[in-house]
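Chapter review. Work through the record for G-protein coupled receptors family 1 profile domain-containing protein before attempting the end-of-chapter questions.
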Amino acid sequence: MAVLANSVILVSFARCRLLRKRSSNILLMFLAAGDLLHVVVSLPISIIIPLGYPHSFYACLFLACTSTLPMQLVVSTSFIVALERFAAVRWPYRHAQYCSRSTVAKVVVMLWILGASFIYLPMFGWNMGWINNGKCSYHRLIDKQFRIYAIFFPSMLLPLLAMTAMYAYIVFVAIKTSRTVQPAPDAVTDDNRRTAVVATKKFGVILVAYVVFLLPVDMMNCAHLWLGYICVACTRIATWGFLCHGFVCPIIYTYQNKLLRTVVWLTLRWHRINEHELWLEFGSGGV
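Structure tokens for G-protein coupled receptors family 1 profile domain-containing protein:
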């Protein structure tokens, strides 16, 4: 289901140029790509490694690192989503200049490369060695301290705290602008901010999805490393939530974006997409 949902979204972006005219929509495309990679890359690896394959040390190490890479890409993109929404509210007039499509795409690619550089550190020595009688095992190869201190803290927890701070500022602006009764000299700026806040509320659901689906797995790892506490039932629930992320988020994107929802529906029915009619109905890639 996750493969189908994310593939339909990516095909919809490929078929409709109007969708690709807004930086926020470009970010949705990157999020869908990250979720698709999570399903087609991480899930098969998570099946292969428990079987003890591959028997080569570096091949096993490479697969173990690659299994966590797609989720790192999703987290990096989610952080850029929050940053783009923050810029839209903080600098409504300069948002188009700061967050153009090319700029957003370049920043996402840079963060993806930076995230990959962290993920593959075990390939250069930060691992527990080949101690499982030649059988591949993620937990006996990847150091728990690496998972917590090199992946969770800098690559997941810090972006989460930054996203929370940015969304808190946006909520503050929303409350402030909602109390504006009389037209002010900067009424146009307030209108732009109100529009950005409305769009941001929709993107805020992505942050909630991140906390609900992705954070519990890392919290279980922290409890195991620091307290020696293992809750099998909690870990199973967290893992299922982790896997559901790739299916739930595309539904959120499609439901909240009217233009994307229309194009997805046309794509599922394989109908012709009339760019001119969509422009008249939604404008320049409206949310």
